[in-house]
Amino acid sequence: MDWKNEVFKNTASETNAFVSMFGGSDKVEYYAQMDYTDASGLYKYPDQGDWNSQLRYSKANIRTNVDFQVTKTTRVKTDILAIFMETNGVPNVNSNDAWWHLFKVPALAFPIKTQGGVWGGSQTYGDFNLVAKSRGAGFTKSHQRQIWADITLEQDLDFILKNLKFYAGGSYDNASNMIENRTKGYQYGWNYYDAAGALQEAVMGTVEDKLTFNNWIDFQWRIGTVNTGLKYETKVGVEDFFAANFNYNMKSEIRDGRSNTWYRENFNLALHYDYAQKLIADIVLAANGSNRSYPAKWAFSPTFGFGWIFVNEPEASFLNYGKLRFSGGSQHTDYVPQAGLWLAAWNNSHGQFWYGNNFTSSWGAFLTQFPTTDFMQETANKANLGLDLRIANCLDFTVDAFYQQRRNILVSAGSLNSDVVGIQSSYDDRGRVASYGVEAGIRFAKLFDNGFNVYFNANASLAKSRILEWIENPAYPNLSVIGSPADANRGLVALGFFKDQADIDNSPLQEFGQVKVGDTKYKDVNGDNVINENDVVAMDYGYAFPALNGGVTLGVEFKGLGINATFQGATMQTKNLLADEGDGVRYVWSGALSDNRNLTREYYDNCFDIAGDKALYPRLSTSNVANNVQHSTIWFRNVSWLKLRDCELYYRLPASLLRSIRISDAKVFVQGQNLLSFGNIGFMDAENLGTGYPVMKAVNMGLSVVF
User: What pTM, to 2 d.p., does this model score?
Assistant: First the structure.
C-alpha cells in the first residue's frame, strides 16, 4: 500500500490578495490596508459532504492609521491592527504527525478497508489508518483573533522652550485562540484465519453517525502599555546638533497560567550629539523594573554609541562615504527559567501518614523545591565595532564585529547538593556565556544611461557561543560543559561497527546491552576501558541555529522587463537524526528503528547488513537495540544547505500608457519560492531535517497596480 499516494496530493494552492489606500488633507491623513491569505493543504478527498478535513490556513489583516492635526501645536496618531486567523485539519493528527506515520507504518501493515468493509487496522498498529483518520474522523478548527491598538498625543511646548515637545500614549493588545472539534468514531479491523482455516474478521471501535462537538480556549493574553515623555532638539552653533528624549513606560502583560502576570516599568534618558555631521555620540541611561524576576526587580542599563564620519563627499570619483562606529553597554533581561521561582514548590499527595489509636490516615504535603530568593537579573555586556563605506556611488560595504558576555544566568543548583537531600535545589545565578562573531554585507546598484538597471546584495554572518562558567561537578573532563557551545548536543564518538566477534572481544565493554556484529562501536573517551554515559562529548556546533548564515539577492531590469532572485544558505549546525524537536517534529529515525516500524530506502541501502565496510548505519533488527540508538556521531550530522528562496520575473507596463488611465504603476509578475534546494543530506531537506510537513515549492502569478 502506497500510503503517501493514497493520502496526499503532490500540489496545494494558496491565494493572496492585498489592497491599500491613503490620502487626506493638512488636517487629517489616513492609511488603510487589508490583505488576505488562504492556503489549502495536501490531503486527498477530504470533502465528506458533512465536513471537510483538508489542511487549511486563512489569515486576514486589517490596518488603519489616522493622524490628526488638532491644532497648530497638537497632533494625535491612532493605529489599529486586527488579525483574523483560522486553521482546519484532522482531529488529533496534526500535519507533522501525518507525515511521521508515513515513515512509521509499513506498506503491507493492513489494507485501507477489510473484506467486511470496515477501515483496516491491526493489533500492532491499532487504528492508525491514515486514510481513515483523514476522511472518517471529522475535523478540527482553530479560531485566533488579535487586536493591536495604540494612540499617541504630541504637544509642542514652544512657549516653555523652543523645540520642546511632550508626548503621551497608550496601547492595548489582545489575542485568543479557540479550538473547535467535531469528531466521530469509526470501526476498524483485520482479517485472520482461525484454527479450522476459515477466514475471520476482528472488529474494534464504535460506529458513530453524528459528529460530536466540543471546544475550548487554547490560549489568551492581553498587554497594555502607558507611555509618556519629553523630546527636545536644537542646533548648537552652525553645525552642531543636540537632541534628548526622556521617556517613562509602564507595561502590563497577562498570560495563561500561574505567575504569568507581569508588570514592567522603564525610565529612559537618551542623549544625542552630532558635531558637524562628522562626530556622533549617543548615550542611553535606562532603569528597568519587572516583577517577573522578583525579587531581583530593578536594573540599571547604560548603553552608548560613537561614530566618526571620516569621508562624506558624494561627488568624489572613488570614496564617497566612510563611517567608523563603536557601541557598547549593558542590558538586562527579566527572563527566569521557572515562573514564580521565588516561591517554594509543594505537593499535597506524598503518600499517607498514620496517627491516633484508631490508625487514622491522611495525605501529607511535602516541599518539592526550595525557593530562589537571592540572585541578580541576567546581564548582557555588549560591544560592537563597525565600518561603512560607499565607493563610486554604487558600491556599499559594511562589516561589524561583536562580542557579548551574558552573566548571572540562572542555572539549576542541583549539582551543588547531594541527592540524599531529596528535595530539588533552587537556582543560582552562576552561569556565564560568551557570544561573538562578525557580520559583513556588500551591495551594488547602478542605473545606466540606456535604462539598464542592475543590483546585487550579499551578506554573511558568523556567530558562535561558548560557556564560560556553569554549575557542574563532572566526573571526567569530557563531561564538563565549560568551553562548549551554549546549545551543543552531546553524545558518544562512534568508531564504526563491530566487524566480527574478535572485534567485540578486543574492544572495551559497552554497557548498553549485549552487542553483536554490526552494532555501533564507540570510543573510550575517558580511558576507563568501559563505554557508558561517561564517554559523551560536545558536538562541534550548536543545534538551535546555524553558526554561519548567508544570502545573495540579485536582479536586473531593462525597459520594464526584469528578474530578481534571492539565495539563502547556512552551515555549521549539528542536528540529530534520532531526536524529537521541541515542536513535535520527529527526525528521520526517531523511536529506535524497531518495533515493526517502516524502513526507509536510505537506511536499508546503507546499513551494515547491506553496505558492509561502507555502512553508515548499524545492523537491522526487529527489536530495540539500546546500544545502537545512543546519541552519537552516527546520528549527529553537521548540516549545510543552499536554497533559491525567492525568484520573480516581471514586466512593468510603460508609464506613458498608465498615465492615460490614471495609474501610477502596474506590473505583471510570476513569482516562485523554494524552487531549488541543495544540501549535504541527500535523502531529506537539510534545513528542515525531520518527518514533519514538507516545505512546499510555490509559484504565483499576479498583477500589481498602484493608483
Answer: 0.85
